[in-house]
Design a protein that fits this description.
- It is a single chain.
- This protein is α/β, with parallel strands linked by helices and 490 residues long.
- Among the domains are: 19-55; 73-247 and 357-486, FAD/NAD(P)-binding domain (3-Layer(bba) Sandwich).
- Helix content is 34%, strand content 22%.
- It has helices at residues 24-32, 38-51, 81-92, 117-125, 129-135, 177-191, 236-242, 309-312, 325-331, 337-344, 385-402, 415-446, 451-467, 469-474, 477-480, and strands at residues 13-17, 57-61, 73-77, 96-100, 112-115, 141-146, 152-157, 173-176, 196-197, 202-207, 212-216, 221-224, 226-229, 248-260, 273-278, 281-288, 293-301, 350-356, 364-365, 368-370.
- Strands 7-6-15-16-17-14-18 form a seven-stranded mixed beta sheet. Strands 9-4-3-13-20-19 form a six-stranded mixed beta sheet, sandwiched between helices.
- Helix 1 crosses helix 2.
- The relative contact order is 0.14.
């Protein structure tokens, strides 16, 4: 028997009606010649319409009874920004979630992170935007400057970001990563108190047509309908699905630090998201925690790799490795006083190497899918790594909600999950790849070494910022105007 019609909403029951074709002609004749009541003829007309579809058909009658569409149990490996957002999005769409986080607690790690408008639209849908804005900082503008002189190349006003909608339809916010994770984790604890499982390092998983099982390093087992690998750049889930990835050192290492703004005096960076560009290096400055802190990220090229054994020691890509303040100062010697004074006030700089990976053509296998850095790790030159993970989380949850056993004809057990994950990948793959490519391209834009390279790259920026600022802003529209919460999976 084949199924006709759409999905059954919650609070409805599915009934089947079968009537043999031998009764269709007599009933039709009776209706035609007026044999029976007006209501009777109306029912007959409806039956004739039904039988034009199939000789034997099922159809849906909406009632207030319990739904036959089962809630999906979603297992999420990883309790970072992508994993927590995916969990909240799944709850929003009516699913049950279990988040398996390897750490003993979600401690304060990292430094600043930018939440661009495309990610803020997801947080708005999850009713978390007000707290994010309150705990972060809303910049007045996005701007680019020359690293040594401080010459402003362009400025994009986003001052309206303090309001509910900025120039791209949502605010632009800068926040400490620990505060970001805390907002997400607190919301998850309030909405699903038992969802987060700590000390839960994923060892392996198995799957079949009925579900997926995750085995932890300590032997514990968790069963569900779907597994989401949100376990980062060194994803255990990805490795089991597709084997070890091939990371290539970009020749760049990155510095990060935060400094209390009170220490910077007149040399505090502007209240913007500002990229400072120079020969073979660049840095980004912005404010955090209501302008109490300044965040610094600096990226430097290393010409003598692989002979530089110091850089070779950074290959683990760990953000927690402490670096040398003297080396940090040397990397930005001669730069604008705003930058050199900031570095002078740094107490504990951290340094790590930047590796690149080829875009993956497939993120999904059966009932298992990847998101965020596990699926599309990208260089930090577009401030989109976490933002893409946030978009992924919403898209995946919406895809799972868009397909049920009642919406696909002649569906076998488990087909709804596979169809949903295929929809998720189809929706996200192209956009994530574009963001990866844009991030890679910005490394060249920011690090022009020759005088001619700087002139041909930065002079048009400066001119465009003066005579056509809206055109400069429009180059980011594809990224920031996008609203994943409005996408309809089909």
């Amino acid at each position: 028997m084949q199924e006709v019609g759409g999905s059954i909403p919650p609070g409805s029951t599915k009934f089947s009606l079968k009537i043999g074709t031998k009764w269709l002609a007599p009933l039709a004749l009776a209706a035609f010649f007026g044999l029976g009541s007006k209501l009777y003829r109306h029912v007959i007309d409806s039956l004739i319409c039904l039988f034009t579809l199939r000789v034997s058909t099922t159809f849906c009658i909406m009632t207030t009874e319990a739904s036959l569409d089962p809630v999906k149990k979603v297992l999420i490996a990883g309790g970072g920004i992508g994993g927590l957002t995916a969990a909240l999005a799944c709850l929003h769409h009516g699913h049950e979630v279990v988040v398996l986080e390897q750490a003993a607690e979600l401690s304060q790690v990292g430094a600043g992170i930018q939440i661009p408008p495309n990610a803020m639209k997801v947080l708005q849908a999850l009713k978390l935007d007000a707290e994010i804005i309150q705990r972060g900082f809303s910049p007045l503008a996005l701007e680019a400057r020359m690293g040594t002189t401080g010459l402003r190349l362009f400025q994009i006003d986003v001052g309206a970001a303090i309001a509910d909608t900025g120039c791209w339809g949502a605010p632009y916010v800068q926040i400490h990563r620990a505060d970001y994770v805390d907002v997400l984790a607190t919301a998850l604890a309030a909405r699903a108190p038992e969802a987060l499982v700590t000390n839960a390092s994923v060892n392996s998983f198995t799957q079949n047509g009925k579900g997926v099982s995750v085995i932890l390093n300590d032997g514990r087992r968790f069963d569900g309908d779907v597994l989401i690998g949100a376990d980062g750049i060194h994803s255990v889930v990805r490795r089991q699905l597709f084997g070890a990835d091939h990371a290539v050192f970009t020749g760049n290492s990155a510095w990060r630090a935060t400094v209390p703004i009170e220490k910077l005096g007149d040399y505090a960076p502007p209240p913007t998201a500002c990229v400072w560009m120079g020969r073979g290096r660049h840095c980004v400055t912005y404010r955090l925690r209501g302008s109490q802190l300044v965040n610094f990220v600096g990226v430097v090229e290393h010409n003598n790799w692989p002979n530089d054994f110091h850089v070779a020691s950074l290959q683990d890509e760990a953000w927690s490795r402490q670096g040398s303040k003297q080396e940090m100062q040397a990397d930005f010697a001669g730069w604008h006083k705003t930058i050199t004074h900031l570095i002078e006030q740094v107490e504990t700089p951290h340094q790590w190497a930047l590796f690149d990976r080829q875009p993956m053509k497939n993120w999904v296998q059966g009932r298992v899918a990847l998101l965020g850095d596990a699926a599309h790790p990208m260089l930090p030159f577009m401030a989109q790594g976490a933002a893409m993970a946030v978009e992924d989380g919403w898209s995946l949850a919406a895809a799972l909600a868009s397909v049920t056993p009642n919406t696909v004809t002649v569906m076998q057990d488990g087909d709804d999950v596979r169809v949903a994950l295929a929809r998720y990948q189809r929706h996200r793959l192209k956009r994530a790849h574009r963001a990866q490519a844009a991030s890679r391209d910005n490394a060249q834009t920011f690090h022009q070494r020759s005088l001619w390279g700087q002139v041909k790259t930065y002079a048009p920026m400066w001119l465009g910022g003066k005579v056509a600022p809206n055109a400069v802003r429009a180059r980011l529209d594809w990224l920031y105007e996008y609203d994943v919460t409005r996408f309809q999976h089909n």
